[in-house]
Write a structure and sequence with these properties.
about 180 residues; mainly alpha; about 80% helix
């Protein structure tokens, strides 16, 4: 939670510096990406849970255990960001925040990987960071191109294409891993 608090404090100081005001809508719009930032850290801790317990490191994953850590990861990477983007759109009136929903299939795959094999857990941090980049980019495209309720179709198409490319890359990576494992 320290990462989450520091991330939001950084946003508060930047909005105060640039506009001489703390903009509440900015916090609400960036809540989903802030939770996903914590999910990157937690995915790393989830992967290293055995080493952390043996060395005495106290991470959220080592304290709550592997099974509850998977559920916590799903809240951070799957539930909170997407419910948060809907709430942010309703609160701020910015329809572009909803562009983030295009990355929902990527987050579903992440949730499955968090409950997967040791090899899938090994790549979970990398895949979470890749999805984090996609979510941040889709929020940026959405807020920049659709600040009100009207949807910019070209921006939406660009967002869908970006998500499709990342999904395709991850599919091909898994296929290559399966082929390499066979030979």
């Amino acid at each position: 939670m320290c990462i989450f608090a520091c991330w939001n404090l950084l946003i508060a100081f930047q909005s105060l510096y640039w506009s001489n005001d703390i903009i509440i809508e900015l916090f609400i719009i960036l809540l989903p990406i802030s939770c996903h930032t914590v999910a990157i850290l937690h995915s790393n801790n989830l992967r290293d849970i055995e080493n952390d317990v043996q060395s005495g490191a106290r991470t959220v994953a080592s304290v709550i255990g592997y099974t509850k850590g998977q559920v916590y990861y799903e809240f951070l990477a799957l539930i909170i960001p997407y419910v948060g983007c809907i709430v942010a759109s309703l609160y701020s009136g910015c329809g572009g925040v909803l562009f983030q929903l295009c990355s929902f299939p990527l987050s579903i795959v992440l949730a499955r990987e968090a409950r997967g094999t040791a090899q899938e857990l090994y790549y979970l941090t990398k895949n979470t960071a890749m999805t984090h980049t996609v979510i941040g980019t889709t929020i940026l495209i959405g807020v920049w191109s659709t600040p009100q309720k009207e949807v910019d179709v070209q921006a939406l198409a660009a967002t869908l294409a970006l998500n499709a490319l990342v999904f395709l890359k991850r599919f091909l990576d898994k296929r290559n891993d399966a082929v390499n494992e066979y030979y």
